[in-house]
Each structure stands twice: as C-alpha cells, then as structure tokens.
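Now for one specimen:
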Amino acid sequence: MSEEKDREQYGVLLYYNYAEIPDLNHLLTFYHSNCSSLNLRGRVRLSSHGVNVTVGGNLSSLESHIAALKAYNSLFHNTDFKLATCHHPINDKVSQECGFTSLSIRIVDELVTLSSHPLLKAPDVSNAGRHLSALDFHSSLHNANNESPESGLVLLDARNLYETRIGKFHVPNVETLDPEVRQYSDLSSWIDDNGDRLKGKNILMYCTGGIRCEMASAYIKSKGAGFENVFQLFGGIQRYLEQFPDGGFFKGKNFVFDHRISVGSSDANVIGTCLICQSSFDDYTSRSRCTYCRMLVLVCHSCQNESTVYVCELCQKQGKAVKSTQLIENGESKTSLSAADFRNFSSDAICLPRLPRGDGDDPRTSRKLRILCLHGFRQNASSFKGRTASLAKKLKKITEFVFIDAPHELPFIYQPPMFEPNVNCASSSLPSSPPPPLENCKKKFAWFVPPNFDGSSGVDWKEADGPFDPLQYQQQTDGYDISLSLLKNVFSQEGPFDGILGFSQGAAMAALISALQEELKGEMDFKFVVLCSGFALRMKAMESGPIKCPSLHIFGNEHGKDRQIANQVSKELASLYDSDCSAIVEHDSGHIIPTRSPYIDEIKDFLSRFL
C-alpha cells in the first residue's frame, strides 16, 4: 500500500534561473549531493550564467530539493519552480530518451543554445523581453482579437516545429508566426531572415516553460530601433494552462521534454495529424523519426511499421524527395536515398515503400550506412583499408566503408641511424643501409602539411632534416582548403554518405568538417562522425562553442599505449562536442581501432542509432 502511495505522489519539477553563479564547482557539488540523496532523476545543466533543470521524483523529495536550493543561495528565492504531479516513469524507451532513468548533471557553456555558430552580437539576457503573467498575456490576446488584424501585435512561437504540430496558440485576429525550425539553435537565423515581419510590432513570445524566450527575446531586442516592444509569457505554456485549465487561446497539447511527452488541457480536441493517413493523432510515444534529420514524426498506431522510412516536411522542402528506386550493391538490395542532414528535428512526414529484405534479416539493417573513411598522416586508402579490415568485417551487416587518398602526396623520407662516437674507431659513425627501392613503396598522403611544404612528391628518397618530432601533427594545418575541395568533390560524385570516419590526422580533418557542418550543408551532408585517435587542430572553426554533430570518439586510455596521439589530446577533442550527442570509447590497445568486445559492441550501438 505504501508503495502505491509513493507512486501516486510522483512529480516532475522544471525550473531555470539566469544569474551569475559565484562558485560553479561548489554548486555542482551541491547538486550531486542533494539530487542523489533525494533519489531524483533527470537533467541538470549548470553554467556560470545560471541553471536549467528538469528532474523527477517523489513530491516530498522535490519539495525538499526546492527548500534546500533556497537555503543554499538567495539567488533561488525568486525562481519560478514549476512542480506538477504525474505518473511514475517506466524504464522504457521514452523514459530513457528523456533521461528519466538516471541523473545527469553537467556544466555547460550555454543553458540553451540560440545559435550553432557565433553571433555577431551575442544577446544580453538581462535585456530580455518583459515578462507577462498568464493573465496579462491572455488579456493582451483577448484585446487584440477584438481589434482589427492590423493591430500591430504578433505572436511568435519560439519552439521547434514538431512541438507546434500538436499544440499552439490560436487567436483568429492575431498573426501567429511559426518559424518551423528543427531545433532552437536555428531560431536566430530565422529571426535574422524575418526582421521585416517583426520590426515595429508588439511581439508576444511563448515557449514551453520560458527559458527559450529569455534568450530569443533578448536577441530580437539587440537589433535596436523598431525591436523594442518584445514581451514573453512568464512560465511559458505550462503556467498558462494552469491559469486556464480549459486551454484558453492555446489549442492542443503542450510538448514537454520528460517522460510525460505532452500535457493537455481539459479540451480534448486533437490538432495533430498522422503523417501517413492524415487522421487526428498527437502521440509521440512511438518515437517515430524522419529518416533524414531524425526528428520526431507523428505516426498513428495503425500506420506504425518499424521498417518504414519517413520523410518530414522540412526535408521534403529541402529537396529530399521520396524515392523507391532499388539499387543492387555488393549483392544486396538497397533504396536510393539522398544525402542525409542529421541536424535534429521536424514533424509531419510521408512514408517510403517498405524495403525488401531477406528472411531473418534485421529490418534496421535493410539499408547499410555508407561511411567515408579518412586515413591518417603518411598513409593511403589502400593501407587504411587493410588496417580496418577486421572492423569492416564485424560491421559488414550495417556499414559500407569507402576509402580515399588525401590530396597531399608526401615525399619518401628516412631517418638515418645515429651512432655514438667511438674513440677506438677511425670514424664516429657507420654507413647506413640504403632505403628500399621506390618501386616497392606505395605513395603516402596527408590531409594537412607543414607551412614549409613544397609540394614535391615521392620521386626519390630524402633524408629527414632532423629527428622526427612526435608532436609534429599539432603544428600542421596548411593545405586544408585543398583537402576540403577534394572532399566536396567526393561527396558530389561518390555520395551520399551517412557519416565520416577519420583516423589520427584523418580524424582531425573529420572533426574540422563536423565543426563546419552548418556551413557545408548542401555540399557535404552527413549524419555523424567517428573520430579515432583524434586531435583538435588549432583553427578558429574549432573554437566556436560545442560542436552539435553527433560523434563517437575512440582512443586509447591512459594505459592504452598509444604513442602517436596522447590520451589527453583525444579527450580534449571530445570535450569540444555537445555531450548530449557524443559518445566515448576508451580502450587499451594502442594506436588502432579496437574490434574486440566490449569496444566493438559500443561502436555498433552508436552506429545503430542512424539506421
């Protein structure tokens, strides 16, 4: 009986607070101690500018957490804590995706990422739009609805497209702007492109709980004259529905980022539709996703099919049309699909024909992932193919590897043996053995070369200028433009590719491309990168904040005996990526890509996300 009572008293707590945090590490320690002791689950994001938290647990524990925060620091005294009762999360796919089967506490640069690239003028959140209570927000809409459509007021939805497809504000005489973005970091670009629709208007913004409007409204106001009148719904849709249980001007359901998935009003009307049959439907529980961008799509229960391919409306607009042409490649049947752009989410989609497959095949592997492989420094496509033969064999059911040579051909060089002077000998050194004949050597290539590289190829053996520098890879950044041009041509002529795998210097090249993923859209579309024994180049593109491209980092641990790329260097590269979409595999096998368990299983798990 007491167990049932505990389950009935379960709740979810959402809150954020923009404030300067004097001691971030001390706050991190507090959250770890407090949340763990109260058995809370969910996501805690901390930065020097504030906190953003969504956690679940027993109501009494959540109330204790709030009390502890207020006692910890006066910064939390005016925080809007949104506490709601709900059913206990089940350890299923939805709960795992939403992070409600564990506790994740991380320090981040930004609580929410307004732009995936540095903004010319970063917004000051202290200049955010004026807060309107749910009552004032409703009153403003009511008054505008009774005036002419040219009243000068516009509603701006700061959420992602898939959220708006199941619920939004609807006021007949008020213009509502839906940016239809896949992710919040695309919103700043939409604002830049639609300034004429906002300038001179009274802008009323809303989002789920308020935090996205803080940064977005500050960004709009930063544009200066004509953009001063920006207002935001305090507490977001959640507070509005609490004030207006029948929904008020909000129609449908409020999408939430926890195991509840969505929260509705007493109005049972459904505004979402199934992407296949167009019947009324607004349940994302199935976690159906667009094949290209991986955003959630609405698929009703009768239309759900785990082997069906969906194309969301935004991908269709980008020219990723439905195709059912069958290709025969390596003796297997595949569907011809355009290059995939893995940048996040959208909604309403259409369905591709069911892919044929042999008996007993896993439907998730009916189309293999095409991965472009970039070799390391002073290697070539042939040697890298040989080095990865075991990996290719173990992944043959889900991947197809494509290998290419880097564009910079390197001269053949050798290091003569060094000898200590011997007073008993007439000479202080012995003659070295000649290098092997050139006809026995295959050409070697690189993605980056040193500044003094003269472009000469291997026409003859050359003696090294001096001892080999084990850290030479950190100084080589020239030749990038030529390498990028080559890869653009490969994508155009040999693509599409689902991902890029790079080893050592090839990983550095792949990392740089992933950092420029938004800029390269249309020329080089891919879903993920796999970076093996990688390192970060000292280039500006690698310093633009967390890289949002999904990534798998594979490198030797501190005892892994990788004498080429230090463990800490690969760790530093991994730290540049958004931790929410990156994974790390540390192994003990040196300067290689491991293919034994448990490492190969972790590699398969990562790749399987994109099937």
User: Anything to note?
Assistant: The radius of gyration is 28 Å. Confidence is low (pLDDT under 50) at residues 1-7, 322-366, 418-432, 466-470. The chain has 17 helices and 27 strands. The longest helix spans residues 480-494.
